[in-house]
Design a protein that fits this description.
The termini are far apart. Helix 1 runs antiparallel to helix 2, helix 1 packs parallel to helix 3 and helix 4 runs antiparallel to helix 5. With 191 residues, this protein is an all-alpha fold. The radius of gyration is 18 Å and the shape is globular.
């Protein structure tokens, strides 16, 4: 789609939102250029170190990861992590988000020990920020368990996955599909 108009932050949000919708509908050829355009518009309007620009950088890297460009996504997430640390400080939630994104990219690239370390760090940070039952903690803890499982460390992975299911039971409706999916996955960790 053609982008018209200025670089007002509301327009950047609209372009980024459209990119996300296109990603979800698997219209990758249109989505990735829009994510790049949103980042460019935001950086031009607000500067490269503005918190909103850093969000657009994260979104752009996520769009690259969704189309399988994991090395590029990992590089961008690492650069953005350093930018966020310098600008926002170590305890900011966006720093935890960047670390979690790095961990997820590493898992996709089969860099399991590196992914595990990043995910442990992200889980620790998110737990300190939001408590043990937050969705960020639960999602990254499940990714951590998967990293351990893929390394053959089942004795560590199984109790972590069980904790995820218990957290989901405390926070989600009884018949929520995530609980059912995780309960289905748990027995296969023994393979």
């Amino acid at each position: 789609p053609e982008i018209r108009g200025g670089r007002h932050p509301a327009r950047v949000v609209a372009v980024s939102g459209l990119s996300n919708v296109l990603l979800e509908t698997r219209a990758f050829d249109e989505a990735v250029p829009l994510a790049e355009r949103a980042l460019e518009m935001c950086s031009d309007a607000l500067g490269p170190d503005h918190v909103f620009t850093m969000i657009m950088i994260n979104n752009h890297a996520d769009s690259l990861a969704k189309i399988g460009r994991h090395e590029e996504a990992l590089r961008i997430h690492r650069e953005n992590l350093e930018r966020r640390r310098a600008s926002l400080g170590e305890d900011h939630p966006d720093v935890a988000q960047s670390i979690a994104s790095i961990g997820t990219c590493c898992l996709r690239l089969d860099r399991l020990p590196e992914g595990e370390a990043a995910l442990r760090d992200a889980v620790e940070r998110y737990t300190a920020l939001y408590g043990p039952d937050s969705s960020d903690v639960v999602n990254n803890t499940m990714n951590l368990a998967q990293a351990l499982r893929r390394q053959g460390r089942l004795k560590e992975a199984i109790p972590i996955m069980a904790r995820v299911v218990e957290a989901e039971r405390r926070t989600l409706p009884e018949n929520h599909r995530y609980i059912a999916l995780d309960l289905e996955t748990l027995p296969y960790t023994h393979l």
